[in-house]
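Hi U.,

Before I forget, here's the chain from the pilot set. I'm dumping it here mostly so it's searchable later in email.
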Amino acid sequence: MLLKDRYFIYTKSDGNSSVLNNIISENGGQLVNFPMIEIKFRQIDEEEKRLLHSVYQYNWIILTSSNAIKYLFQHLECYGIDKSVLDKTKFAVVGQQTGKTLASYGYKYNYINSGQTGEQFAKELDELFDDSIKALYPTGNLTRYNMERVLGDRVKRINVYNTLMPDIIDKDILGNIRSSKYDMLIFTSPSGFNNLIMLLNGSINLSDIRSVCIGTTTQQAMQKHGVEPLAVAKTANARGIGQAILSYYESIKK
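Structure:
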């Protein structure tokens, strides 16, 4: 089996991915969860509250993650805003999983990204939206500002959740990383990578890290620290990560 006895550490906040776990286990490997970020409800400021209370005025809502959906609807409930005000709103989403999460709240997306990066998504929406469009962008505190830079005054941002260092860290898995007892670390965001670097606190040579990551944004964040991933997923989801891992081990087997 291609991944026989290989040990993979998944740093995503909700690392219980049945898709990725199945790909790895079916090929003989083991996947363990070691979340390097924690997502929490964020108390919004007065300007953001004003935007939220006028959500019905927006033609589109831009959703780049399942967390954005979860915490948008939590905020609506928190401020007594019936979600039915969104019944005439159009939704643009990143990825099928985000679309499925939106469906669980009773809404269908009107547009889904075709590219693989946030910047590409913003450029797609720039072509889709004319100058009369008003779009609301619920997202997290660490999300980059590609959307605002590309869409300008057509979009308003609300930070509905915070991305933080987890309160609880599995010291055994951290010890395995420090002693190089793993085959690959799996990174899905710059913040997950940066938090791990903070935890390691200079205890290892970063250039020795063996990893796979999603997308060029995470790859570039790693490269700034001298870390070159062994593989980069071509599609920004769990299946893409799994395929990148398999392709890498196929390549070194030859």
